[in-house]
């Protein structure tokens, strides 16, 4: 108990005692105590009302001096008020610093609450997306930036995903959008202008496509003459090996050109059509029959665990199977084994190619789908691989809303799995089909 509180209690006891003594002198002790209690109550109520009035008028002169309990209450209140005012000032100063920092960022930053309402945004958000800091506060961001991809991004809370949407401010510009956690029940929407990056990417695709188109004609002529020389019985024997090597390199160049053209076509397209039905089981069997050669390749088995089919492009899915299978054949010894599997469940469908080959080091796995990337460049060149197959696979799967998963360990083989979402899977009859397994 503080000194002021002790003085207050002691004064109250003395007042009651005095009232009791005075009442006792007149033979009314109870009345004396009652009168003393009413006097004490009146005095405290008067001080309470005066303090309440001082709170409204901010005039505390009557409570600044003295050592009574009300002076102590005022001192404590004054201390807390000053601390609160100081903290409020510091908070405002910090908020201004944060605002200046965010305004200096080239990327747009929009803080959203749990309902995706705008809490605050920086100047770059206004420049990139047309958002207004004061006018748009409290409004849903997906009502201002109307785009199905953005709505899906905010609804799924996938903080690893990034999307690109057209700029609502400037025609032809593109924004990269990503949401990250920010505070309790909040998220931070980051907007980045990727127009220049997309423009350079388009220039690269156009250049590759145009260069590939221009190379086709001279390669066709060269290949034609080399074929004629190879079949000409009058060709000198000393020319046989050089011509054969030139013919093989011309064929390899033709394959590179075709793959570059295919990759350019895939990069420039959107999602694959979903109104075509793809018989994956049939494509797996056909791919196995086209590649398997007795005694020259590893054994290839086809395992069909589902009758499900896909919605998409049959040619593109066939390209996925062919590219992954050709990689498996090149890197699996003749005494090894390759298994092509097609299965499905309530989470979608999966096409996998498992081999018992040499395997891949873990630090190479993230780069396998880069164009022209080869783990063993010397071997890939000798075998005809140029590092475009998995890049094509990646883009085809992206067009089919699917993803590629790679599991590999040196010396223990690799598994390439293509997972398709339920919206791309046609299930009739229900799957999986227990016990129905076919092997090629």
Explain what this protein looks like in three dimensions.
There is one protein chain. This protein is an alpha+beta fold and 440 residues long. It has four domains: 93 residues, no CATH class; 89 residues, PAS domain (Beta-Lactamase), CATH 3.30.450.20; 72 residues, Helix Hairpins, CATH 1.10.287; 150 residues, 2-Layer Sandwich (Heat Shock Protein 90), CATH 3.30.565. It is 52% helix and 17% strand. The protein is built from 13 helices and 13 strands. β4 and β5 form a beta hairpin. α8 runs antiparallel to α9, α9 runs parallel beside α13 and α10 runs parallel beside α11. The protein is elongated. The C terminus is likely disordered.
What's this entry about, in short?
With 440 residues, the protein is of the alpha+beta class.
